[in-house]
């Protein structure tokens, strides 16, 4: 039965790989005929995402370089954010260099935020989460994964399912490390349901490993072993290095914990061999560490010591104090950038409120002047009242101008009280005479016009009285 299952699995994997290769070849054919750099960029990303989804390929440094060159050439922040994400993924998934990966991820975040690309922001945060997970820091891993979850694209987006799987997988892994298997099981089941719709061979392998980790944490060893074997077999059938690393690390740990030394040695050798083949420090460290434990269990001291020294040497290159300081500096810079960004957004919000207030004040002044002019022409108004409202209108206008000029004066005078006072006095010396001149001109015209209106009304009254047959003078 087991042989039938493995054969069917390998057949399905081969069939799926052929279909994916055909699609990839089709996209590459289109890419070869495309001359527009922006379209080239989109096609390269599409090919890479299809390879990731199917597990038929890994991230190549030449592809990352090509994406970065196009983004720089077009000077496009959105494309730069994507290229930084891909470069980080190369160092994270292919090289196992998590410190360098974090550098590029943190470079990409502000660019993705600038163009408000939620899909890219969530992707980078999820990849940062994985880096911290591999660096054995589940608390930071969970923190950044939650940030990614907060920035998921809308559910109507075609990229939502592609991104939600990463979120669910990371949550399951974090909760396993944090010894919360029930929470981890919830996310593993959610990931399984999501992948049923998408049918990704890569995520089939990831789901099996997630279930295996959860059931091992729950003490269900028999069930965990079934899932580990399925996950390991599936990971061998795909060519994506990252899932091979995860599946073999957890499966080998399980085998050693259950005294299955021979099987553990075979998995450890495969890890070390693959790590040497692609120069991946994480794989080499894991393989050497497992072989050290295996030979220690077999009481082969010389071999155990040899692989122990190898593991220590690789571990020192990954977890050196210099690298730890570098990671802390990167995280601190990102915290400062987040604080600055929050302050900038708050300032912009406040500025928008002020602009709205200025607009409303200007509208109010304009409305007041128009209403005043209309009323002064349409109704007979007391002369003193006209003069009073004329003064009020002019005062409001000039005070509004003073309000608008104040921020500019603060900037020019560098907030110097004495310079600001002198400047304001100078402005007042220019404005006050003009204010009086305009006030006199306007009020005189309005009063004169009002008098003319009164005289016109008086003439109409006299004429009416003169022609009225009931008037005593006409009898």
Task: Describe how the helices and strands are arranged.
Layout: H1 2-33, H2 37-54, H3 61-74, H4 77-95, H5 98-114, H6 118-134, H7 138-150, H8 160-177, H9 181-198, H10 201-217, H11 221-237, H12 241-257, H13 261-278, H14 281-297, H15 301-318, H16 321-378, H17 383-413, H18 417-467
Structural description of this entry:
- The protein is mainly alpha-helical and 475 residues long.
- Residues 1-20 have low confidence and may be disordered.
- Helix content is 86%, strand content 0%.
- The chain contains 18 helices and no strands.
- It is elongated and about 130 Å long.
- The N and C termini lie far apart (132 Å).
- It has helices at 2-33, 37-54, 61-74, 77-95, 98-114, 118-134, 138-150, 160-177, 181-198, 201-217, 221-237, 241-257, 261-278, 281-297, 301-318, 321-378, 383-413, 417-467.
Q: What portion of residues belong to β-strands?
A: under 5%
Radius of gyration over alpha carbons?
38 Å
Main sheet: strands, sense, barrel: none
Order of helices and strands: HHHHHHHHHHHHHHHHHH
The coarse overall form would be elongated
Number of helices: 18
Structural class: mainly alpha
Q: Low-confidence segments, ≥5 residues, pLDDT <50?
A: 1-20
Distance between the termini: 132 Å
């Amino acid at each position: 039965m087991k042989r039938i299952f493995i054969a069917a699995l390998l057949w399905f994997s081969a069939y799926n790989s052929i279909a994916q290769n055909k699609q990839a070849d089709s996209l590459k054919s289109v890419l070869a005929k495309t001359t527009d750099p922006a379209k080239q960029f989109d096609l390269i990303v599409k090919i890479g995402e299809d390879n990731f989804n199917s597990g038929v390929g890994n991230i190549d440094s030449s592809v990352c370089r090509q994406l970065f060159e196009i983004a720089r050439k077009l000077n496009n922040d959105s494309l730069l954010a994507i290229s930084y994400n891909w470069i980080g993924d190369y160092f994270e998934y292919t090289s196992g260099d998590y410190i360098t990966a974090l550098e590029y991820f943190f470079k990409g975040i502000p660019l993705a935020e600038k163009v408000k690309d939620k899909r890219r922001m969530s992707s980078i945060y999820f990849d940062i989460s994985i880096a911290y997970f591999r660096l054995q820091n589940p608390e930071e891993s969970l923190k950044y994964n939650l940030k990614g979850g907060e920035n998921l694209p809308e559910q109507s987006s075609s990229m939502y399912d592609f991104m939600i799987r990463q979120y669910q997988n990371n949550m399951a892994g974090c909760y396993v490390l944090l010894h919360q298997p029930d929470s981890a099981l919830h996310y593993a089941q959610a990931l399984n349901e999501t992948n049923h719709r998408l049918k990704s061979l890569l995520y089939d392998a990831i789901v099996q490993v997630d279930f295996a980790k959860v059931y091992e944490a729950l003490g269900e060893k028999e069930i965990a072993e079934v899932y580990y074997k399925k996950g390991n077999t599936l990971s061998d059938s795909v060519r994506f290095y990252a899932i091979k690393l995860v599946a073999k690390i957890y499966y080998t740990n399980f085998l050693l914990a259950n005294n299955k030394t021979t099987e553990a040695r075979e998995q450890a050798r495969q890890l070390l061999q693959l790590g040497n083949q692609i120069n991946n420090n994480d794989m080499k460290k894991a393989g050497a560490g497992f072989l050290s434990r295996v030979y220690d269990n077999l009481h082969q001291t010389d071999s155990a010591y040899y692989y122990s020294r190898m593991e220590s040497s690789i571990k020192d290159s990954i977890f050196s104090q210099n690298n730890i300081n570098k990671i802390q500096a990167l995280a601190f810079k990102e915290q400062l950038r987040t604080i600055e960004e929050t302050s900038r957004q708050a300032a912009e919000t406040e500025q928008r409120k002020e602009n709205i207030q200025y607009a409303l004040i200007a509208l109010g002044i304009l409305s007041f002047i128009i209403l005043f002019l209309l009323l002064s022409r349409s109704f007979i108004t007391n002369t003193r009242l006209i003069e009073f409202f004329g003064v009020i209108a002019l005062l409001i206008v000039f005070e509004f101008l003073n309000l608008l000029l104040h921020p500019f004066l603060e900037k020019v005078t560098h907030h110097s009280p004495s310079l600001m006072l002198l400047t304001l006095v100078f402005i007042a010396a220019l404005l006050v005479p003009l204010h009086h001149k305009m006030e006199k001109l306007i009020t005189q015209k309005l009063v004169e016009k009002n008098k003319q209106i009164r005289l016109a009304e008086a003439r109409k009254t006299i004429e009416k009285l003169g022609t009225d047959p009931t008037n005593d003078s006409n009898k």
